[in-house]
C-alpha cells in the first residue's frame, strides 16, 4: 500500500514534468517557426519574354461595407508593404470611387471594385465606372461587360456563401485563392491551432492559410475553353472584423498580415503611367488576358519567375508565348518541329528545396526538382514508325541526363487532332516548396492555350 502510493506520487510527478518539458519544447518550436524561401543573390531572368512584374492586393473590405479599416489607412499599410496596386471591393457599393479616393499614392495605385450579390453568389466587378446594384447574375454580368469591366467568381467553394451554379458562362476569372475562405474553411482543429498559436507567433499561425484549394483548382481547369481563357487570381477578402458576440468584434486577422500573405502579380509590358483610367485599364486587360500569376508572398517575393512555350520550326524559326497567350498550330503549319515549355524561378536550391510541375488540362504532365523546367514535345512527321507517346510523370532529379525519354513525342496528325478548338489544351505551372515533410504550393501560373484551326 505504502509503496503503491509512493509510486503513484512519483509517477504523477514524472508525468507532470514530462508534460511541462513537452509544452516548453512545443512552445519554443512554434515561437521560432519560420519558412523563408532563399532566392539567389544575383537575381537574373532567364525567360525570353521580358515583362514588368507588378504585384497587387485584390479584394478587401473597408468601413464602406463590413470591414473594420478605413481606406485611407489601408492605402498606407499597402504602401508600406510595397504593393504596386490595391483594389478594394466593398459589398454592393462603389462609393470609395465617388468619394475621390482612387489614385496614385507614391508607388501605390489604388482603385475601387465592387463585390456584388447575385442569386448564385458573390461576384467581383473590377474596372467599372458606375455602381452596379445587387441582382441577377445575367444582369450584373451584362452591366459589367457594358462598362468594359471584368467579372470574377468569388470564393466558389467556401461553406457559408459558395457559388451555386457551376455551369454559368461569361465570367472572366475565378478567385483560386481567397484568404478568407482559406482560413475559415479549414478543418476546425486547424482553426483552433491558428487561434491558439496566433499570439505566440502569428507567422506560424497564418502560414496554415497557404493550403491548396483542390476543388477550386478542379473547377478552374474544367472551365477553360478555346478562346475563353479563365484567369485565376489570389484575393485577400480581408475584413479584419470577426464577430464573437452580439456587441463584440475583434480585428482578426490584421489587414497588414493578410495583405502580406498572397499577391496577384501582373506581367505587364509597361509600367503605370500615373493616369488613373489608363492604369486601371492596364490592370484589367492583363487580368482578362491571363497575363498574371499568383503566389504566397509571405514566404518571399518571387524573383525571376517565367513560364513560356516556344514553338520551333524547320529553319529554327521560333516564337515565344507566355501565360494568357493562345498558340494556333495551323498558323505554324507543317513547319513545326518542337514545342518546348520552359519555367524557372531564382530560388536558391541549396537552401530551399522546390519543384516545378507542368500541368496539362489539370493533370500533371511533368515535374522537376530544384531545377528549371524544360519539357519538349517533339512533333514527328513520320506517322508509321514512331515511338509511343511518353509523357513522363515521374520526379526527374537528373535533368542533366536529358534524353528522348524525358520528352513527349506525338505525330503531327495526332498533335493537330488533339489540339482542335473543341479540344484545346491548356498548360500551366505550379511551384511547390518543400520543407521537411511539408510541401506547400507557393506559386500558380495562368494557362497557355494550344489549339489548331
Ligand atoms: Zn464574398
Ligand atoms: Zn469579400
Automatic annotation (TrEMBL):
GO terms assigned for molecular function: 5'-3' DNA exonuclease activity; 5'-3' RNA exonuclease activity
Keyword Flavoprotein: no
Key words of the record: Membrane, Transmembrane, Transmembrane helix
Keyword Membrane: yes
Ranges for domain Polymerase/histidinol phosphatase N-terminal: 56-120
Cross-referenced SUPFAM superfamilies: PHP domain-like
TM ranges: 6-28, 189-210
PANTHER family noted in UniProt: EXONUCLEASE (PTHR42924), POLYMERASE_HISTIDINOL PHOSPHATASE N-TERMINAL DOMAIN-CONTAINING PROTEIN (PTHR42924:SF3)
Name listed for the protein in its UniProt record: Polymerase/histidinol phosphatase N-terminal domain-containing protein
Originating species: Candidatus Acididesulfobacter diazotrophicus
Lineage of producing organism: Bacteria, Deltaproteobacteria, Candidatus Acidulodesulfobacterales, Candidatus Acididesulfobacter
Amino acid at each position: 500500500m505504502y509503496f503503491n502510493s509512493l509510486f503513484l506520487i512519483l509517477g504523477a510527478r514524472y508525468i507532470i514534468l514530462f508534460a511541462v518539458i513537452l509544452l516548453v519544447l512545443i512552445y519554443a518550436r512554434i515561437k521560432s517557426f519560420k519558412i523563408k524561401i532563399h532566392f539567389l543573390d544575383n537575381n537574373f531572368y532567364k525567360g525570353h519574354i521580358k515583362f514588368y512584374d507588378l504585384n497587387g492586393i485584390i479584394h478587401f473590405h473597408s468601413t464602406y461595407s463590413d470591414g473594420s479599416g478605413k481606406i485611407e489607412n489601408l492605402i498606407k499599410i499597402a504602401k508600406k508593404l510595397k504593393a504596386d496596386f490595391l483594389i478594394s471591393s466593398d459589398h454592393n457599393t462603389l462609393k470609395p470611387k465617388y468619394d475621390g479616393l482612387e489614385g496614385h499614392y507614391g508607388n501605390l495605385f489604388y482603385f475601387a471594385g465592387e463585390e456584388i450579390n447575385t442569386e448564385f453568389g458573390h461576384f467581383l466587378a473590377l474596372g467599372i465606372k458606375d455602381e452596379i446594384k445587387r441582382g441577377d447574375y445575367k444582369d450584373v454580368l451584362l452591366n459589367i461587360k457594358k462598362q468594359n469591366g471584368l467579372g470574377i467568381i468569388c470564393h466558389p467553394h467556401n461553406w457559408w456563401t459558395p457559388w451555386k451554379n457551376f455551369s454559368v458562362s461569361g465570367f472572366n476569372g475565378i478567385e483560386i485563392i481567397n484568404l478568407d475562405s482559406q482560413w475559415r474553411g479549414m478543418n476546425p482543429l486547424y482553426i483552433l491551432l491558428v487561434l491558439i498559436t496566433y499570439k505566440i507567433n502569428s507567422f506560424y499561425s497564418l502560414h496554415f492559410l497557404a493550403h491548396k484549394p483542390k476543388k477550386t483548382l478542379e473547377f478552374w481547369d474544367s472551365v477553360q475553353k478555346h478562346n475563353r481563357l479563365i484567369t485565376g487570381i489570389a484575393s485577400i477578402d480581408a475584413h479584419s472584423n470577426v464577430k464573437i458576440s452580439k456587441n463584440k468584434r475583434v480585428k482578426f486577422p490584421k489587414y497588414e498580415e493578410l495583405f502580406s500573405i498572397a499577391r496577384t502579380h501582373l506581367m505587364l509590358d509597361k509600367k503605370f503611367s500615373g493616369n488613373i483610367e489608363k492604369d486601371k485599364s492596364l490592370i484589367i486587360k492583363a487580368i482578362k488576358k491571363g497575363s498574371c500569376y499568383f503566389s504566397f508572398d509571405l514566404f518571399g517575393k518571387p524573383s525571376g519567375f517565367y513560364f513560356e512555350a516556344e514553338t520551333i520550326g524547320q529553319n529554327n524559326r521560333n516564337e515565344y508565348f507566355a501565360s494568357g497567350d493562345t498558340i494556333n498550330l495551323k498558323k505554324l503549319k507543317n513547319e513545326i518541329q518542337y514545342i518546348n515549355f520552359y519555367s524557372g524561378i531564382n530560388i536558391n536550391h541549396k537552401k530551399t528545396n522546390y519543384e516545378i510541375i507542368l500541368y496539362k488540362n489539370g493533370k500533371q504532365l511533368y515535374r522537376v526538382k530544384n531545377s528549371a523546367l524544360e519539357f519538349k514535345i517533339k512533333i514527328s512527321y513520320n506517322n508509321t514508325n514512331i515511338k509511343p507517346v511518353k509523357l513522363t510523370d515521374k520526379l526527374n532529379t537528373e535533368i542533366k541526363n536529358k534524353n528522348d525519354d524525358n520528352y513527349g513525342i506525338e505525330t503531327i496528325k495526332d498533335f493537330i487532332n488533339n489540339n482542335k478548338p473543341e479540344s484545346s489544351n491548356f498548360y500551366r505551372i505550379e511551384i511547390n516548396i518543400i520543407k521537411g515533410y511539408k510541401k506547400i504550393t507557393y506559386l500558380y501560373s495562368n494557362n497557355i492555350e494550344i489549339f489548331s484551326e
